[in-house]
Amino acid sequence: ILPLFSRKPNDITTTPPKSHTRTALSTIPPSHIITTSTAPHFRIILNKFCAVENQVLLISIAPRFQTEPLDADELAVVGTVLRRLGKEQIAFYNCGKESGASQPHKHVQVVALGEAAFGGLYPGRVERREDGGLTHHPDVPYTHFIAHPPPKATGKQLHHLFAALLAATKRALGNPEMPHYNFLMTTEWMVMVPRTRGECDGVGVNSLGMMGVLWLGDDEQLEVWKGIGFDEFLGRVGVRKI
User: Fold this and answer.
1) Where is the Ap4A phosphorylase 1/2 N-terminal domain (predicted)?
2) Residue range 153-206, pLDDT digits in tens
């Protein structure tokens, strides 16, 4: 339970903005910036609404939107950050309103989960396919797609896998022009989860929530999860497996 999350601003809308306006992430005080060495792609800043220590945000320097896919250059930066920060780091990108995103300015979050939580994430328990194709975990109740990048993958290699994940996600959602999804990445695996709803009974869930890591604002939100049931909740906000 993280009471700070109940005060977290939500500036994203269900339709893409026609122009880039000032938001909580588009104007960053210089004191909050860790580095701009990843320019011209991202600034790296400390997350004001952090759940764990040293949680960082990769903020797009250009006026980009949270409804856009990640490109090869951005994925290259994410891969470099993950390798440099070390073990048990995970990056995640909430794309679109129904993904649980709260800010319209394009950003990727990076967090260290700790050995127990990180080791329990289901994509890490799925074997790599020898042909490099996409796979999934058979026991997860909602549709998702997993890819395994090569060691020290380049931005081009990461983007090739990202594009395959996105194509599969679009098909699962009926090929919408603007799909909503959660994307998570470590140095070992990538996973994308198609999303149909950003919340259930007033309680939102983002990328980590779809992995079973819940960051909730209060006890009432926890009771909603308990009342609905974990698998049922995730099935309602994702695409149920047939």
Assistant:
1) 36-114
2) 999 999 999 999 999 999 999 999 999 999 999 999 999 999 999 999 999 999
Domains of the chain: 3-11+23-237 (3.30.428.70)
Q: Are 100 and 94 spatial neighbours (Cβ–Cβ below 8 Å)?
A: yes
Task: Report strand pairing: 190-194 vs 181-185.
Answer: antiparallel
Dump the DSSP string for 111-157: EE--HHHHHT-GGGGSPPPTT---B--TT-SB--EEE-PPTT--HHH
Q: How far apart are CA 143 and CA 136, in angstroms?
A: 8
Residues of the chain with pLDDT under 50: 5, 14, 16-17, 19-26, 31, 33-34
CA distance 128 to 134: 9
Task: Find where tokens 């995640």 sit.
Answer: 92
| pLDDT at 12 (0 to 100) | 52
Contact in structure between 170 and 145 (CB atoms under 8 Å): no
